[in-house]
Amino acid sequence: MCGIFGISDNKDSSKLTYVGLFTLQHRGQESAGMAIDSKNGIQYYNGMGLVSEVFSNDMFQSFRGSSAIGHVRYSTTGSSNVNNAQPLFFNSYLGQTAIAHNGNLTNADALRAKLQKQGAIFQTSTDSEVIIHLMAKYHGRTIEDTIADNLHKLEGAYSFLFLAPGKLIGARDPNGIRTLFLGKLGKSYILSSETCAIEVVGGKVVREVEPGEIVVIEKGKIKFKKFAKAKETARCVFEQVYFARPDSVFSGRTVQSARYDIGRLLAKEIKNVKADIVSGVPDSGTAYALGFSEESGLPYKTVFMRNRYTGRSFIQPDQKLREFTAHLKLAPIRDAIKGKTIILIDDSLVRGTTSKKIIGNLKKAGAKKIIMLIGSPPITNSCYYGIDTPTRKELIATKLKIEGIRKFINADALHYLSLENLIKACGYGKDKDFCTACFTGKYPTKVSKLQTKTVNDK
Ligand code: AMP
Question: Given 43, 123, 177, 204, which residue has the most CB atoms within 10 angstroms?
């Protein structure tokens, strides 16, 4: 998964994009980058690491443009190296263009093979580069026509930002699997993966970019165009389950509210279970636990001290350091735990390793019983759209039934939220059009055999 942010017509565009990317840091911590529309044309700067590590104070003295786009990356296709950091930049018949992509293209391997056969020389191993070669080869009169004509050839999930001299362009996949929001700050337009970044830079959220829509911002004016219509819209439900920031808004309500509702519905699903306290695995599990507490009347207690400085970057070069990881990230708070039957809530079980370690640590700290609740259904299918779920054979719910999983994680009881209640919580009873492929195996787009093989052979 990645985060993208762009802003038009603003003398502080690079600084505001820095703030936007900083706000979207939770969406990717491997690399960060920015492209600007400067007096000297499109310039870009990418690097490995966190936003604060890639960009320096001094840089913004000279790195200035009228518009900018930026990207934070968590790699799901292509390895984690600076060559794959975005925005990607290219110079073609259409002139200079930078692009930033969030999502995964499910026919990227097939398109890449075809383009390479025709002579294309790829510079990165990302799926995102495919659109560059398509645009260079099959170009129309303007960049926006070229984008609209080529997006049809892509399958899968994407939100794109394009920056060309005088133009900022955004596009969202026809099913709307990945997110993209439009905001306004004075005369500037903003495009962002999540609403939180629009608000943090001082902007107002206008609306979601619609599935299959292109937004073109030029000379302070905005134009909208539908380039495709899908049979169904299917926004990724995992955004609200785990990925998005709690203060971001989907369908008019914050992610935090959806997570509270998930907790409430879990409490309704397991009415007669006896416990002393309820707690959550930070961070997403905390909101679930608070919702559960409100509905059930069971007291909420914090049972973990979370180390905020580990991120994903805590080095694990050898077994000795690896041994510390789980405890270093989440250290049990003894008094809250000792002798207690604890309802513990996490958003999801993927391989089951996190829960196993956490439950082990709680029991070592004196917990009497752990009743594990999961705020989403069992994950039984790989995501081809950008959420980093592993191959099917690594997913614990494809190998074991609920009782087997309970034994593996060493919980005294285990319960998953029903799909029906998950949709209710995330759609607020109104929206039902979500991508739930990781739980159901029903993919909203075609997924080529080649792609399935690549992911499952990984
Ligand atoms: P696992 O240990 O493999 O069962 O992973 C479950 C844990 O990973 C849960 O605590 C989730 O909050 C977290 N998680 C779920 N999805 C992702 C993801 N795409 N990337 C990183 N962590 C995740």
Answer: 177
